[in-house]
Amino acid sequence: MRNLKLGMICQAIWAGTLIAATSVSLVYKRRWRLDGLNVPFFTYVLYNMEIILGLLNCTIVHICCQWKRPRYDNVLNQMVSILNEFGKFGEEQDLVWLRYQFSKYLLVGGFYFVVIVAVDATYYWKVIVSVCTTGAYFVPNAVQFLSLLQYAYVVIFAYRKCRAVNAILLAVRYSLRSNFKSYCSTIRTLRKQHMLLHRLVFQVNRDFGVLIILAVFSVLVAISITCLEMYQYTHEKTLNFSTIHYVIYSALWVLMYVCKLLIVLIPNHLMVNERDLTGMILQGLPLVESKEFTNETLKFSRQVLLQKGPYTANGVFVLDLTLLVHVSLLYSHYDHFS
């Protein structure tokens, strides 16, 4: 208990230090970017929104992580319970795979941030500007990236377990010949696990809903201002090393923002597809002369039917790849209007 309190105090101090450093950096960055410049009103609004959302994201991530601390234990207990049930079917490799994959994601993400910091430093060649850019942009984005990775870990875990449910159902489908009662307990267990997986994803979307909404809005604003800056910098200018350097720098930022969207959208998209596939597999089970088996499959089918539909971020928008299409259409219309 003492170690837990000490850890919470250390985390609170670390969070306060990061937020204070980010605030100071943002004040300087805002003055350096906006003061003394004849900036159009819309561009001025976007700059300020980007700055405010960056600080707000960093603050809310730390506050929510402390506020939702009991939910971590709840989610972990649900995952352990699901793993124990799947252990009966010999499915035990998911945590090893997830640990390996997310270690790679962390390494790739860390390397990518280092590359952007290096490109930023070589573009401005001013220590104070590079330090403030790191505090104003890299720190909030890194904190947000780590929080979204936690979210993606749980959803991908649920997706892989849902895929395991479908694999077992397919095995049952191809081996279903006789002794139907022996499969009833299997169907019953799979139905329970399928419901728990759906509930787990639903709960984690609710817990991370505010962070996801802020992340999406911050990405929209940041991509808008980055593309606008890129257009203003390269419009009617000769192609030289400085221009190419700036385009590469801006493209790296845009790619990072798109990746943050994909961290949220791809796991949900995979989970919805795999969850809906369960209904198709159940529909393909052969008709058998066993009332108990038929009742179990009907209950399972009814459950899957009630779970239809994509997941949402607190009901604000749908969490699947169609959101990325809508964002692309939004920017294409914006460019046409501009």
From TrEMBL:
Transmembrane segments: 41-64, 105-125, 137-159, 208-231, 243-266
Topology of the protein relative to the lipid bilayer: Multi-pass membrane protein
GO cellular component: plasma membrane
Signal sequence bounds: none
InterPro entries referenced in this protein's UniProt entry, alphabetically: 7TM_chemorcpt
Entry's localization field: Cell membrane
GO biological process, one term: sensory perception of taste
Keywords linked to the UniProt accession: Cell membrane, Membrane, Receptor, Transducer, Transmembrane, Transmembrane helix
Domain of life: Eukaryota
Pfam families the UniProt entry points to: 7tm_7
Family per similarity comment: Belongs to the insect chemoreceptor superfamily. Gustatory receptor (GR) family.
Functional summary from the UniProt entry: Gustatory receptor which mediates acceptance or avoidance behavior, depending on its substrates.
Protein name: Gustatory receptor
Organism, scientific name: Aedes aegypti
Name of the coding gene: 23687835
